[in-house]
Design a protein that fits this description.
This protein is 38% helix and 23% strand. The protein is α/β, with parallel strands linked by helices and 200 residues long. It has a single domain, classed as Vaccinia Virus protein VP39 (Rossmann fold), CATH 3.40.50. Strand 3 (80-81) and strand 4 form a beta hairpin. The protein binds S-adenosylmethionine.
Length: 200
C-alpha cells in the first residue's frame, strides 16, 4: 500500500497560486514565494502587473510564510493589449479580488489600481525589499518602471523580472547588467532576479 504524505506548507501555498489563471509555472511561482519570504517585515513587496492574481497569491503567501511583509500589487486594469498579444482590462479586477479572497490573502494584499509609474512617484509606503516587474513589457515601459521605483528600494533589495525570454525585457536587463547596476542572482523559467548595486 502506498501512502501519500500531506503537502508541505510551501507546496500547499503553491497549489493555491496554481489554481489562479495566468501563465507562470510552478517553478516560477516557487521562486517568487521564496523571494517574498525573505523580505523583512519593515520592508514590503511591490508587484507591477497582477492580471488575475496568480503571481500575487504566490508573493502574498510567501511573505506570510516569511516575516509577514506587506504586498502592494499595482495594476491599472485599463484596456491594454500587451506586446505579446495578451488582452487585459477591467474584468480582470473582479477575478483578481475573488482569487485573492479565495486564496486567503484578501486582507494581506494592498491592491493599487493605478499605473505603476504614478504610484511610484507618489510612494510614501515602506522601503521596497522585493520589486517584481511584470507589467508592460515594452522596453520604454520596463525602463520607466525601473527608474520610477529605484529610489524607493531598500538597501539590499532585489528585483525580479518576468518574461526574460522577451526581446525588449532582455535588452533592458542586459544593458543594466553590462552597466554593473543589476547583479544577476539566479532565475527560474523566464523569471530572473538581481541584486542592485547602488550608484552614487
Ligand atoms: C502579463 S500580465 C501580469 C501577469 C501576472 N503577474 C500573473 O502572474 O498572472 C501584465 C499586466 O500588466 C498590467 N499593466 C499594464 N500596464 C501597466 C502599468 N503601467 N502599471 C502596472 N501594470 C500594468 C496589465 O494590466 C496586465 O494585467
Amino acid at each position: 500500500m502506498t501512502t501519500r504524505s500531506a503537502p508541505s506548507a510551501v507546496e500547499a501555498d503553491l497549489m493555491l497560486a496554481e489554481d489562479v489563471e495566468g501563465w507562470m509555472s510552478r517553478e516560477e511561482l516557487a521562486l517568487l514565494h521564496e523571494l517574498a519570504a525573505r523580505v523583512p517585515r519593515v520592508q514590503c513587496v511591490v508587484e507591477i502587473g497582477n492580471y488575475r492574481g496568480r503571481s500575487t497569491v504566490a508573493l502574498a503567501l510567501g511573505a506570510r510564510h516569511g516575516s509577514g511583509a506587506d504586498v502592494y500589487s499595482v495594476d491599472p486594469h485599463a484596456e491594454f493589449t500587451g506586446p505579446r498579444g495578451g488582452h487585459f482590462g477591467r474584468e480582470d479586477m473582479a477575478h483578481l479580488y475573488a482569487n485573492l479572497a479565495r486564496s486567503g490573502v484578501g486582507a494581506h494584499v494592498r491592491v493599487v489600481t493605478l499605473p505603476s509609474v504614478s504610484v511610484a512617484r507618489a510612494w510614501t509606503g515602506p522601503r521596497v525589499g522585493l520589486l517584481f516587474v511584470d507589467g508592460d513589457h515594452r522596453y520604454e515601459a520596463v525602463r520607466a518602471d525601473y527608474e520610477a521605483w529605484r529610489p524607493s528600494l531598500a538597501p539590499g533589495a532585489v528585483i525580479a523580472f518576468d518574461d526574460c525570454d522577451f526581446a525588449e525585457v532582455v535588452r533592458f536587463v542586459e544593458e543594466r547588467v553590462d552597466a554593473g547596476e543589476l547583479v544577476p542572482q539566479g532565475g527560474a523559467g523566464k523569471v530572473r532576479w538581481f541584486g542592485i548595486r547602488q550608484t552614487a
